[in-house]
Automatic annotation (TrEMBL):
<dbReference type="InterPro" id="IPR021247">
    <property type="entry name" value="DUF2785"/>
</dbReference>
<keyword id="KW-0732">Signal</keyword>
<protein>
    <submittedName>
        <fullName>DUF2785 domain-containing protein</fullName>
    </submittedName>
</protein>
<feature type="signal peptide">
    <location>
        <begin position="1"/>
        <end position="26"/>
    </location>
</feature>
<dbReference type="Pfam" id="PF10978">
    <property type="entry name" value="DUF2785"/>
</dbReference>
């Protein structure tokens, strides 16, 4: 069963996304603005009464998502875009244009390692707008699911926060993208399973111990997938057994004989514990009943 699960996981992580070439040469700060004006906008809580100017700037700020300065990349570009989307201050046309600018950035060359994770984080906000007020059609929504699966499976830069550089946090941002899609009732069981298995692909990457809260971020979409009541307790127990398997170790006791084994144990235990705590706190008894038996079983197997 574990071998079958890994083959399916590999297939999930190789889904094509059909992205167009990334837009190049984007200026940051965008044309018509400078650092001082953007800082003033942030100080004003991103209030911009001119609708046309706000929508132009929203598209321009996509070019700042790879900027090495965290004050521009995270503190202004991401915060402005998130704020405007959560206030429903961007038109559907602008949201579509922003999506089309961001999707290619998920796979574009990214030597500094900032652009891809911040494109994923803003796409999570785009996905949230469709959850709150549907504006995507089924094919466009499926496109985002494919993007989220492909991005999360493909993360290999595991840097979280670096002093002087700020956040990259690719796995956490990919998990947030999956979360916003998993919360959307328009997704079907197959789409949710692909998101679930993309999460599984990053629970315990070989040789890397998570220290920046990634395990909790990965657990969040899983608990909301479970809330959809599309998979029974037996299905969840089988999935959890596969995710929490000691392989390539022969058993969990062998983890104590190598650094690589301890890293895997650390990551698997962090994920399962985070998911257990989230499941235990669910107000929906059916969700608890779907997840907790499998979680208790895998926790008992880990020394």
């Amino acid at each position: 069963m574990l071998r079958t699960f890994r083959r399916f996981l590999l297939a999930t992580c190789l889904l094509p996304v059909g992205l167009a070439p990334a837009f190049a040469g984007a200026a940051c700060p965008p044309a018509g603005s400078d650092r001082a004006s953007l800082q003033a906008l942030k100080a004003a809580d991103f209030a911009l009464a001119d609708t046309a100017a706000r929508e132009r700037l929203a598209l321009g700020l996509a070019g700042c998502l790879g900027d090495p300065d965290p004050a521009l990349r995270d503190g202004i570009a991401f915060e402005a875009l998130s704020t405007w989307m959560r206030r429903q201050q961007l038109s559907d046309a602008t949201l579509a244009a922003l999506r089309d600018r961001l999707r290619p950035l998920l796979v574009a060359e990214d030597p500094r390692g900032f652009q891809r994770p911040f494109a994923a984080l803003v796409l999570a906000e785009v996905a949230r707008t469709d959850r709150i007020r549907p504006w995507l059609d089924a094919a466009q929504r499926e496109q985002l699911v494919a993007d989220a699966v492909d991005y999360l499976c493909g993360v290999r830069d595991y840097r979280g926060y670096v002093d002087g550089e700020g956040w990259r946090h690719g796995v956490a941002h990919g998990a947030d993208f999956a979360l916003q899609l998993a919360l959307n009732p328009a997704l079907d069981a197959g789409q949710l399973e692909r998101l679930r298995d993309a999460v599984a692909a990053q629970v315990a990457p070989a040789g890397h111990a998570y220290i920046h809260g990634e395990s909790l971020r990965l657990a969040r979409p899983i608990v909301f997938i479970a809330r959809r009541d599309l998979h029974d307790a037996g299905d969840w127990q089988r999935w959890l057994q596969a995710v929490a398997a000691p392989a390539p170790l022969p058993d969990w006791n062998a983890a104590f004989a190598s650094e690589a084994g301890m890293v895997r144990r650390h990551d698997v235990l962090a994920f399962v514990t985070a998911l257990y705590l989230l499941a235990q706190e669910q107000d929906d008894a059916a969700t608890r009943e779907r997840l907790l038996p499998g979680l208790r079983a895998v926790l008992k197997e880990m020394p």
